[in-house]
Here is the input.
Amino acid sequence: MAEELEARGAEIVELFKELRSPAGEAVYPIHARRGGREMFIEVETGVWDEQVRRGVLERAAVLRRSEYAAAELRILSAHPVPSDVRFLTGGSPGALLQLDLVGGDPGRPEEFAELFRQAAGRRWGVDLDYSPESLPLTEELVRAALDGGEGDPAPALEPLVNGLGCFLGEVIRRSAPVAGSWTQDPEERKPLVECGDYLLDTVGKARAFLEEGPEDSISFYARYALERIRDQA
Here is the structure.
């Protein structure tokens, strides 16, 4: 593979390049350079099961938070690369944001909310403080990241749906006048916020916002939900 890249004009910098970043450690089979731009090559020979997908995305997260964050990442595979993996290993603002959320666990919504907040801080330089007043800015920044400024909007994949939904739920839980807690829908196995007599599907609301846009505003939803909870209290 390295010889083929050299024949096409690439300079092989290092084989089995070890990378370290705040996202962890990873080894890339080929580190190359072409036209002055750094390039990392991932090689996959097996089928794209969940373990392979997660491994590739975890290594991509290490790369994107390393000194080579702007490098081109190519995947050479014996099987077609899944469209979501191809997107998330790209370098668009929407891909970078969602890549930061790949390791989140909806079964631990408070931790996932914090993962989203930290990703926002890295990507946008803002501190989303879990207040309802931070939600309009969150909406604006998420939509801008997905729009990307050119071409078709980026897809909103499950990591973003769950991360934004957990952040929205944590905003409501922390702001409610009565003690709120996280629970789980036993059928759909997704997190729900319980405040008094209200059971809120904030992940579902985040999905609606990402699919429909401002007409399904998460900030309006939070205000409305908190008003109903206050009336009950």
